[in-house]
Write a structure and sequence with these properties.
Helix content: over 70%
Keywords: Coiled coil, Intermediate filament
Number of helices: 2
Protein name: AINX protein
InterPro entries: IF_conserved, IF_rod_dom, Intermediate_filament
Family: Belongs to the intermediate filament family.
Distance between the termini: 179 Å
GO molecular function: structural constituent of postsynaptic intermediate filament cytoskeleton
């Protein structure tokens, strides 16, 4: 008969070794799993720290951009005000220049009218002068004709005339 007690002891030893081995395997698996999790947690923490650093850098850049944007907005508003002031000044200057142009045009029209009036007066005076010159020439011819008559007809008449040969120079206006 086989030794049942020895077989039972051997079975018992195997059954008692099995939980110890299972326990050892579970502990090894647990330690490996914990080590893996710790390693992943460390990597995750490093990633979180890097993300926080990056988020902080992005936040600083955002704040710098916001400050820059505000300063540019202020500069833009200032330039807009300056542009509006310049436009107002230029439109006022343009209106002043338009008024000056209008006054100069009125002065030019008045001057042209006055020049036309002076030209008409000059023409009238020139016509009067020419008429007077013609009349003077006619009187001169009459006087010369009468002088000739007196000089032919009487000898004593030239003695009465202080200017024996009066010289009248008539030069008609051309």
């Amino acid at each position: 008969r086989p030794d049942l007690a020895a077989a039972l002891r051997e079975l018992r030893a195997q059954y008692e070794a099995l939980p110890a081995r299972n326990l050892q395997a579970a502990e090894d698996w647990y330690r490996a799993r914990c080590a893996s999790l710790h390693e992943r947690a460390a990597r995750s923490q490093e990633a979180v720290r890097a993300s926080r650093r990056e988020a902080g850098e992005c936040r600083r850049q955002l704040q710098a951009r916001v400050v820059e944007m505000e300063s540019l907005r202020g500069a833009h508003e200032s330039l807009e005000r300056q542009l509006q002031e310049l436009e107002e000044r230029h439109s006022a200057e343009a209106a002043g220049l338009q008024d000056t142009i209008g006054q100069l045009e009125d002065d030019l029209r008045n001057t042209k009218t006055e020049m036309a009036r002076h030209l008409r007066e000059y023409q009238d005076l020139l016509n009067v002068k020419m008429a007077l010159d013609i009349e003077i020439a006619a009187y001169r011819k009459l006087l010369e004709g009468e002088e000739n008559l007196f000089s032919m007809g009487s000898v004593g008449l030239p003695a009465m005339n202080p200017l024996p040969n009066p010289t009248y120079s008539f030069q008609p206006y051309s």
